[in-house]
Each structure stands twice: as C-alpha cells, then as structure tokens.
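Researcher: Structure prediction, please.
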Amino acid sequence: MQLIFVAGSWGSGTTSVIGALDHLGIPTFGPHFKSNDPKTENTYELLAFKDLVFKFSEEKTIRRLKGYSQGFIPALEVFRKDLENQTWPEIPGGREKIFALKMPLASICLPEITQVFDTKIILVHRPIADIEATRKRRDWPAHLGAMGAQQIYMQFLDGVFAAGLNFLGVSYNDFKADPHKALSQIIDFCDIKEFSSNIDRAAGFVRR
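Model: Predicted structure follows.
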C-alpha cells in the first residue's frame, strides 16, 4: 500500500496540495475534519487518522506523549488493516492501492509512518510571516501559527534526516503561481504518471 504524505505546518498550504492530489484522483477517503475557515472548510484531514495521532502526540506542545515509542506503530498497523478493508476506488493502470494523508502534527511522526507504509513525502513550506498572518486571520491559537510552524519544521527535519528519508519540498507560493508545473514535479516524484490526465482539474482546484 502506497502513501503520499503531505507534511507542513498549519497555514502552510498543505490543504491546497492534498486537495489537488484528491482532484488528481488520489484517494483521501473520509470523513474529513472541517475547519472554521470558509476558505479551507475541508481540511482533507482523515478523522480516523487524526484521532490516532492525537492518542500519541499533543498538538498544543507539538510533542510525542508517553507510550508513543511502544504504541504508535502497532496503532498504525491497525489503521492500515482498517484501510485495506475499505471500498477502494479503481486505480488507473491497475497499480497497487495508493492514498494520501495530511495532518500537520503527524509531520513529526514520519519515521514511524514510513515503517508501516511505502511513503512518498511532500513538504509544503511558506514564509513564517505568512503562516502567522493566516493564523491571525483565522483567529486561531498561537501554536497554530509561527510558533507551531517553527517546531513542526524543526522536528520534521530532525526526524527525516535521522531516518535518512527523502522528500520533495514544495513552496506554497510557487504552487499557487504555477500549479501545473508544481503538480508535474509532484507527479514525477511520487511516480504517479497514470494520474496525469487529471492535472487540469487539479490545477483548477488550486486556482479556485
């Protein structure tokens, strides 16, 4: 089972990227968490995965909780089995099952996630000042802005470097400016060329 994981902080543009993947035809399942921001009401964060991550990590402090090292991977394996039993859409070209996940807090959990899933990692980044401005517009708590972004990116890099993981960095500003180019890079990196026929639809979603 292949996973495309969209990493990044709150307000960094991860919703736009995973939404584009969804419009390419990559399953994101559901139900998804709904935010209070009318611009990004659907966060594309799978509730079952979000609940799992919250059992082993804390959003406000952006840290792993006691029991993480023993319990997180077994819980991920149960989550994987539950996914396998879902009704999957037809995948172009008859390839194996593939899906996408996004949850900012889970960006610090990738060394373990990659042990359970064959994972391609996309890191979405944006200037910290823009992330903080988005937080203020949404009237969200401080940890969902610049403060949290600094922690998310630091822990993400520490984790993926220590585990020797590869990832594709995507600038949110570039993604918005030229979604066709950015999506082509994502398609190449994730080796999902069979979804290329939907690139216009995905780029249209980004522009909207």
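Model: The chain has nine helices and eight strands.
Researcher: Thanks, that helps.
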